[in-house]
Amino acid sequence: MPPTQDEIARVKQSFEDLRPHHEPTSYDFYEALFRRAPELRDLFREDLKGQGMRFMNTLGLVLDDMEDPGRTTIDYAELGKLHTTLGVRQAHFEPMEEALMESLSNKLGEAFTQDLESAWRSAFEAFSKKLIEAGDIPA
Asked: Global pTM?
């Protein structure tokens, strides 16, 4: 089920709250991801700092797209194809989601309530579905 406007607003606000901490949050995300799925480490460059900032920038664009889908700046087909080329498969999105939730929880602390986690999960699942379908990411 796609996220509601209220969920999108809460997710966007929490993302803004993280803005001063994007770099450590993105690095924490990759550490959490590789603990869950060590086989994914080989899909990423050595420069996780740069990769992490691209991840956070893309995440911000995804949230903007969810808020106002009519003015998207994301080419989901192109982004999905890029991920496919790198070796990403549909099964990889589950450890990505869990790693994101862990890193958000670590950085937001008590502000990362069950409701906010649910909103983030809804947003992540909507993004994943769009990316998988548009990019024809294999199972």
From this structure: 0.89
Residue 22 tokens, joined: 């994007």
- Position of tokens 């770099």? 23
Which residue type is seen at 75? Answer: D
Q: What is the pLDDT of residues 27-50, one digit of tens each?
A: 899 999 999 999 999 888 777 777
Q: Each residue of 124-133: b (16+ CB within 10 Å) or e?
A: bebbbebbbe
Would you call 12 exposed, middle or buried from its count of C-beta atoms within 10 A (0-12, 13-18, 19+)? middle
Name the strand (E) or helix (H) holding 42: none
Q: Length of the chain, please?
A: 139
The Cβ of residue 27 has, within 10 Å, a number of other Cβ atoms equal to 17
* Unique residue bearing structure tokens 């990889």: 92
Is the CA virtual torsion 58, 92, 2, 14 positive or negative?
A: negative
Of residues 45, 29, 27, 48, the one with CA closest to residue 37: 29
